[in-house]
Structure formats: structure tokens, C-alpha cells
């Protein structure tokens, strides 16, 4: 069994956002595991619960938010990147947590495979 850490920097309109979600789902459905999902840069917007219904930008956000709420993977949002984009704990979607870059450093050390979606 391999543990994966995924870095998602693709914003809601980027194709990498949905590719990352499909990959995370596939990992979780396999014999492998997700050590951590880390959202950074524009990827933090996927965790904004107010973006859920924002037209095409909301499609990727809605898909991520529905999956995270249902499956409860370790979904961490960089607090610094989130604050720069107006995302605070009040508008953070269910299942996501705010944390610093130290959590990503931990994921780099603990995950056996690291994949970046930008």
C-alpha cells in the first residue's frame, strides 16, 4: 500500500482541479491511501463554500466539497493562501481545515508519492 500526498494549486476553472479530484477518488477507492490533500494558491478557492453555486467556477468547487464532506479525506487548506483570497474559517466548506505550510512539509516527508495538480 502506497500513501499519496496531493498538492492542488489549480483554481476552480483550471482543468487540474477536476483531474486532482478524479485522482484522489481513485486512490481512495484502491488499496492505496491519501496521506494528505493540500490546497495552495488558487486551489484554496475550491474550499470556499460560497463558490459552490458560482456557475462554471462552482462546478469544480461543488464536486470537491461534496466529495470531501462525504468521504472526509485529510483535506488541508493553506491558511496564508486562503487569507490572501478572502477565505477564512467562516466560509470554509465542511470537511476542509486551515493549516500552515508546515502541514505540507509533513506531507512531503510522510507521503510515499507526491503529485502536484496545477
Automatic annotation (TrEMBL):
Pfam family, one: DsrE
Superkingdom classification of source: Bacteria
InterPro entries named among the record's database cross-references: DsrEFH-like (IPR027396), Sulphur_relay_DsrE/F-like (IPR003787)
PANTHER family reported for this sequence: PROTEIN YCHN (PTHR34874), SULFURTRANSFERASE TUSD (PTHR34874:SF3)
Name the record gives this protein: Sulfur relay protein TusD/DsrE
Native organism: Alloalcanivorax profundimaris
Amino acid at each position: 500500500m502506497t500513501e499519496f500526498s496531493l498538492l492542488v494549486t489549480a483554481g476552480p476553472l483550471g482543468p487540474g482541479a477536476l483531474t486532482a479530484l478524479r485522482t484522489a477518488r481513485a486512490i481512495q477507492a484502491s488499496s492505496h491511501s491519501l496521506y494528505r490533500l493540500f490546497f495552495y494558491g488558487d486551489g484554496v478557492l475550491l474550499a470556499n463554500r460560497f463558490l459552490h453555486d458560482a456557475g462554471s467556477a462552482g462546478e469544480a468547487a461543488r464536486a470537491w466539497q461534496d466529495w470531501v464532506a462525504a468521504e472526509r479525506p485529510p483535506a488541508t487548506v493553506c491558511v496564508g493562501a486562503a487569507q490572501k483570497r478572502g477565505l477564512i474559517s467562516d466560509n470554509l466548506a465542511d470537511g476542509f481545515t486551515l493549516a500552515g505550510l508546515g502541514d505540507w512539509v509533513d506531507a512531503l516527508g510522510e507521503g510515499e508519492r507526491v503529485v502536484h495538480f496545477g
